[in-house]
Amino acid sequence: MRLSAFVSTTALFCIPLMFGQQSRSSDIHDVSIHAQTGIDALLSLGQLYNRPLGIVGSDKSILAPTLSVQVSQAQFADVLARVMSQLSKYEAHEVQGVVLIQPLNRDVATERLFTMVLPNFDSETKATLTELADLLWMDVELRVDPSIRGFAGIRHETDFKEFQPIHLVDVTVEDVLNELVRRRRSAAWVGFSAPEVLTGVQRERLWSIVSYEDPPVPVENLCCLNRTSLSAAQSK
User: Fold this and answer.
1) Is residue 227 part of a domain?
2) Of 49, 54, 70, 213, which residue is least crowded by CB atoms under 10 Å?
3) pTM for the predicted model, two decimal places
């Protein structure tokens, strides 16, 4: 493997929010969210209900700490509807088991990044989520600039679960990220607003993989959401 060194009004139910699974008693929780960003609120829900998520946070409204939800004994779909009703510039839908939250209108650079088609994605050996996220980044960089001869960086990870080799053909960057969190289940990917030029941009500036904890922990303690990237996206 090529690794470097390193929900209370009628409007709420306009969203198709069954998301593929019949509810179980374990899927019902009390939820208390106060003045959080949309990304933090969504990650809290993903962790609490153990649902894989994909979040494209390119519209900075999702970074405003204004979202609050208070509900007792609620299912995931109901709470998600409440959250989405406060994110007017975003939509949510399910893609083969992964709940994807993205802006109604993605900017051109971000759309170009996450819809970029890769001829193949091969991990070849067992790898962790972070290693796979880095491998995807290398594939993207090589797709943009085939003359690249090497990669260097520092890796931070606490989720050491390894996956069997992965082989995907003719997939987008978004497809690969969805597949990674689908296989892990207890995880989400968070994409950021992409720059116009991708060459030389570090992976943490483009997307992060977040691993949930059981029992749930505060979002700020989850590995490995890059807060620097969030701050950069918010300042754009």
Assistant:
1) yes
2) 70
3) 0.82
